[in-house]
Amino acid sequence: MMSELEAKALLAKYGIPVNEGYGASSAEEAAEKARHIGFPVAVKALSSKITHKSDLGLVELNICNPGEVLDAGARILKKARGIDPDARLIVEAMADPGTEVIVGAKRDPQFGPTVLFGLGGIFVEVFKDVSLRVAPVDRPMALDMMGEIKGYPILKGVRGRKGVDLDALADVIVNTSRLMMDEEGILELDMNPVLAYEKGAIAVDARALLRD
Amino acid sequence: MIGASRDPSKWGYKVFHNIVSNGYRGRVYPVNPSAAEIDGFRCYPCVGDIPGEVDLGIVIVPASTVLKVVEECGAKKVGALCVITAGFSEVGPEGAALEQELKERAAHYGMRMLGPNTMGFVNNSISLNASIVPKMPPKGWISFISQSGALGLSLVDWAIGSSLGMNCVVSTGNKADVSEADLLEYFEGDENTWTIAMYIEGLKDGRRFMEAAKKVRKPKLAIKAGVSQAGARAAASHTGSLAGSDMVYDAAFRQCGVIRVEGVEEMFDAAMALSTQPRAKGNRVAILSNGGGAAIMASDACERRGMKVPELKKHTKAGIARLLPAFASVKNPIDTVAKSDYDLYREALKMLVEDKDIDCVMVIYAHAGFTSAAEPAKAVIDTIKEKYPKPVVACWMGGREVSAVASMFRKNKVPYYPVPERAAEALWSLIKYDEYRKEARR
């Protein structure tokens, strides 16, 4: 697996917006980076061996001052190193809340790269409300994918609730397809969640599984 | 035919017999070193002894001698091979190694190869039955590619029973060389094939299949069997766990214009409509019925599948109202209140296909005993003959009297169904075909 930092660097290379983030080897360094980014920040474990960070309590969100970064950083680092001795920390700018969607990709043994889109959070956990295409996915196809899911009205805006930037999401989908077509070493890619706003979208968590 | 046998209990006899007893007009050479003649045909000890040129070698010798036969065929410059012999990749790694060698040797001599482990093929346009199905299906425009030999064969039998016409039936076997993609390319160029039906368990090269299917402009239908999640491994990502193979097949089929159907009946119901009717340019359906209940069920069946049963144009309504008793109201679905004579059905149907707000028509007749099932059927046949650029499907509900009408419909290329749900599903496939075609082209 790629570390989150590596995965996000790869996304950025393909024009997919990610939130600002830095690696840190100690809680002190994490606090330093947090000061540089500006508060609030998120502090998470950075490891290429740990997949489900939040389930393991290795994520702390909305931290508002350096002291809390020191505490959270020390706690997370200790716990994470119990699993992966090489684990570090990642400090990221907290993104504004938005509509959570998932954009993912998988290399299918028969069809090659495929791209997946769905509403994030409980929608993907419970309803599995997702759509899929075999890459390459172009813009009209990406818009079709969004239109296909049952939760589409949520994206479009319903009952006075503003819709999200479908064009920005289409860009994320198309760029994910491009990435998968180019980077043959990537087996699976998950951006969960991507936060969609009235204007723009940003991938706040990313996971990339590499070929053995 | 290499491995032709005199023993009627052996496949080597059955296949040979099927080739020579179904009206194939080409030359047939049985090859078997220990027989002088089979079924009155002179037998040759080996391929090299055959006097003339050979286009196709059908191989049904034991697996251990297949390679030797392929060498002989290569030396004789045989055009292509159909290897019915089993005992290759389907039996394990040793068989897989043998299959690889078989594939390489055939390719070395430039011979394309169907199989191994195929149950053969039927090509109705040249009356060639190189398969183990004893009877040929009636001639038609549907060609069927089947990964399962037994299923392919049973469908031929089924087609005979339901007098559904078929052009080719090909059992792909292990697909060491010729795959669905090759066959799609072939059927695109085959003027006797109008619709391609497929039974697929797994594709070896999904991308190549998609490329081939995208180029085919004819309607394509597929059953993809094995939809369970059993193959999905515990994935590290959400995408990994969500994007199971079934979902990928769904997407891939759609992207290359293949309509996925669940089962055999649905496939042939759709194929019947797709191989006889013009494409549907939209999803607005008009329903004409001699009974209210059937009409309502048909509307439900259409709407459930995403079709619309909209209001008719004023002009159409007025025209149809003239044909009906004063108390009948003219809405869509149209209930003729038990009237089903030729003129009524003929006139009403004509007005419906001419209505610009309607894309396709379902005509229903529910048999009551005191009316003729054939009269309204003739009206449908006569209307379709006029070649309106809109699909019409027929739903004739009833028993014995209706089965006589069924064969009349088949003869006249009217897609016929015994219940409204099946007629609706067939209409839906016509609409989807048009949608998918646009998507695949984009």
Question: Can you characterise this structure?
Answer:
The complex is a heterodimer of chains A (212) and B (442). Chain A is built from seven helices and ten strands. Chain A has 212 residues and is an alpha+beta fold. In chain A, strands 5, 6, 7, 8, 9 and 10 form a six-stranded antiparallel beta sheet that branches. A four-stranded antiparallel beta sheet of chain A has the order 1-4-2-3, covered by helices on one side. The mean pLDDT of chain A is 94. Chain B is of the alpha/beta class and 442 residues long. Chain B contains 15 helices and 17 strands. Chain B has helices spanning 11-20, 63-75, 93-108, 149-161, 180-189, 206-215, 238-242, 245-255, 264-274, 292-304, 314-323, 342-354, 374-385, 400-411, 420-441; strands at residues 37-38, 41-42, 56-59, 80-83, 112-114, 120-123, 128-131, 139-146, 166-171, 195-200, 220-224, 258-261, 285-289, 334-335, 360-366, 392-397, 416-417. Chain B has a seven-stranded mixed beta sheet, sandwiched between helices. In chain B, helix 6 (206-215) links the parallel strand 10 (195-200) and strand 11 (220-224). Chain B is elongated. The model of chain B is unreliable at 230-234 (pLDDT under 50). The A-B interface holds A 1, 51, 102, 104-106, 108, 110-112, 114, 116, 118, 124, 128, 130-134, 140-141, 144, 188-190, 192, 207, 209 and B 202-207, 210, 235-240, 242-243, 245, 247-248, 250-252, 255, 439, 442.
Q: Topology of this protein?
A:
The complex is a heterodimer of chains A (212) and B (442).
Chain A: H1 4-13, E1 21-24, H2 27-37, E2 41-46, E3 59-63, H3 66-83, E4 88-93, E5 99-108, E6 112-119, H4 122-127, E7 130-134, H5 139-148, H6 152-156, H7 166-182, E8 186-196, E9 201-203, E10 206-210
Antiparallel strand pairs in A: 1-4, 2-3, 2-4, 5-6, 5-8, 6-7, 8-9, 8-10
Helix pairs in contact in A: 2-3, 5-7
Chain B: H1 11-20, E1 37-38, E2 41-42, E3 56-59, H2 63-75, E4 80-83, H3 93-108, E5 112-114, E6 120-123, E7 128-131, E8 139-146, H4 149-161, E9 166-171, H5 180-189, E10 195-200, H6 206-215, E11 220-224, H7 238-242, H8 245-255, E12 258-261, H9 264-274, E13 285-289, H10 292-304, H11 314-323, E14 334-335, H12 342-354, E15 360-366, H13 374-385, E16 392-397, H14 400-411, E17 416-417, H15 420-441
